[in-house]
Design a protein that fits this description.
Helix content is 40%, strand content 8%. It is α+β, with helices and mostly antiparallel strands and 209 residues long. The longest helix has 16 residues.
């Protein structure tokens, strides 16, 4: 299963905004983007690039891919599936991405970042409706309950994240019970409920050419 293995702070700097790929570190002054808020590379500070419409569309697609930790082929598959669903394609795309198991584990506060959530899911630390689920792209349906396995409840990463997550806002389409270490997807979120800066219309324009 392919995944990006390079330095993630470069991705935030390239996109010109925080993508919160390192969890709690992104909220502190140690964040690389806070110290060097310009594009990576030898000439990143002084680079002057004329941005075209295609460039804007490409950057938006790359940003979405990097936020959710998805490679190009898988992202294209998500777009093709979103285009076949009834409704607005861009909103469908974000709904498919938001209802991935690894994203919900992150949203519910069981992992400090999406890459960490992906790793925890791959290692089999979570159950969906009482059954082991170790596929990060597993699509969670409304009403499904995500819980931490009994053998994983004392895992340091999960414990630390739950303790430090109190100040984070929980999306209204999710409910969690930190003491029981479980959460539930209440509904598929509408676009207004999804807290992301991605402009999905630009992605639709890019793939529709």
């Amino acid at each position: 299963m392919a995944r990006y293995r390079g330095p993630v702070c470069r991705l935030c700097r390239r996109e010109g905004e925080k993508l919160f790929l390192k969890g709690e570190r992104c909220y502190t002054e140690k964040c690389a983007y806070e110290r060097r808020a310009y594009a990576p590379g030898e000439h990143g500070r002084n680079r002057r690039i004329r941005v075209t419409n295609y460039g804007l569309q490409l950057r938006e697609k790359q940003k979405a891919r990097r936020i959710y930790g998805i490679m190009e082929r898988q992202f294209r598959n998500y777009f093709a599936k979103a285009a076949r669903l009834p409704g607005v394609t861009g909103e469908n795309l974000l709904q498919l991405l938001e209802t991935r198991l690894d994203n919900l584990v992150y949203r519910m506060g069981f992992a400090p970042s999406r890459p960490s959530a992906r790793q925890l899911v791959l290692h089999g630390h979570f159950l969906v409706n009482g059954r082991k689920a170790n596929v990060p792209s597993f699509r969670v349906r409304p009403g499904d309950v995500i819980s931490v396995r009994d053998d994983s409840r004392n895992l340091g990463m999960i414990q630390d994240t739950l303790e430090g997550r109190g100040s984070r806002d929980l999306p209204e389409w999710i409910e969690t019970n930190p003491k029981a270490m479980k959460g539930r997807l209440l509904r598929v979120p509408s676009r207004e409920m999804i807290p992301t800066t991605v402009q999905e219309n630009l992605i639709v324009e890019l793939y529709s050419k």
